[in-house]
Amino acid sequence: MAIATAPEPTLPATSAPARASGLSRIASVDIVRGVVMVLMAIDHVRVYAGVPAGGATPGLFFTRWVTHFCAPAFVFLAGTSAYLYAQRVGDKGAVTRWLITRGAWLVFLELTVLRLAWTFNADYSSYMLGGVIWMLGWCMILTALVIHLPMLAITALGLVTVAGHNLTSLLSRETIQPLLQGDLGWLYRILYFGGGLRWFGAEDPNFLILYSLLPWVGVMALGWAFGAVLRMDADRRRRWCLTIGATAIVAFVVLRYFAIYGDRPWPPQENMPPMAAFLSFLGTTKYPASLLFLLMTLGPTILVMPWLENARGRLAQWMTVFGRVPFFYYMLHIPLIHVVALLISFVRTPDATPWLFQNHPLAPGPAPDGYQWSLGLLYLVTTLVVVALYFPCRWFAELKQRRKDPWLSYL
After folding, report:
1. pLDDT score for 25
2. Nearest to 106, CA basis, from 84, 81, 87, 78
3. Crossing angle, helix 375-402 and helix 314-324, to 10 degrees?
4. Which tens digits make up the pLDDT trace of 242-251?
5. From residue 271, how far is each of 9, 121, 142, 266, 277 by CA, in Å?
6. Is the CB of residue 288 less than 8 Å from the CB of residue 212?
7. Is the distance from CB of 340 to CB of 384 less than 8 angstroms?
8. Which is it for the CA torsion 294, 300, 305, 308, positive or negative?
9. Of 210, 78, 198, residue with least CA distance to 131
10. What residues does 311 pair with on adjacent strands?
């Protein structure tokens, strides 16, 4: 990615109807979101490749680890975009309505269209998924209430939620199990513990909560507060980004190395090889996202944003296109990856093709013998999918720039 001096932009674009404003964009926000979309494709190709989510080898481990940056950046910048939209329209009531309606729309799409795209089967009674879009939608609905607090209170709420939720590790199994088995067990699972719920009167859990709402609503609240940083002049904005990002990284290293707080202990076993110890150090908890997981991912994301503001070149252009229409990209990439996986299976392992109609991504069962792709094939397919998606995403980004139809803000 080439770097060149460019006129200083002012505000980043949002997916909200705020594009009617004539304000220009901060390139770093779109580029970060674009990179997130590409990394997300790696993980979702991995699902249909039958490759495990991580492993003892560096190749398997980092294929999964690099995708950990996706959800934190996506949720954090969603809060930032909402804040910037609020500054433009000057009406928190309008922002509240938009967050609630868009959030409800995302929940609906996760449970209908995206569920079908993941599985290519219509047996909704046996499998439903509370995934990242489900979580994002509910966090937007909750954020619609939070934004009416003073900024200091919003920031404090975000910090307490993100930093404090790991105190639940002090609770014993004997304390947690009665909560999950009680009348409000379903609510505790949705809010924090995750796991399976019984949907449509099923005997076994068939609604699987992958992304609980905590601590993600805190991440979105901090993203809202970060919007105030992006409204600062360029020098102050750069200093704040570097300070926040570096502080988060240092906090991660210190808390993780000394196993003080924020995740399960990592200390390596005696005589563990250095690489295995390093992978253990980075192997933080994503479900629910631990404090150290969020420090590890959001710290570098915020730290690089000032450097990306003046990024130029073909790669920066492509990432910017994806970052301007992230949800449109998301809606296209899952069915496209699924179709490509089917085509590859028809040629490569035709007897294993029925596996691709199982309940992905959480409950498809083990991949058939001989089906698993190599990492080389996984990355080749990811590259082809990303290239193919660039052209419809560029078309849609140009359409959103030309037209002001309100419905465009929901894709």
Report:
1. 60
2. 78
3. 70
4. 999 999 999 9
5. 52, 48, 47, 14, 10
6. yes
7. yes
8. negative
9. 210
10. 3
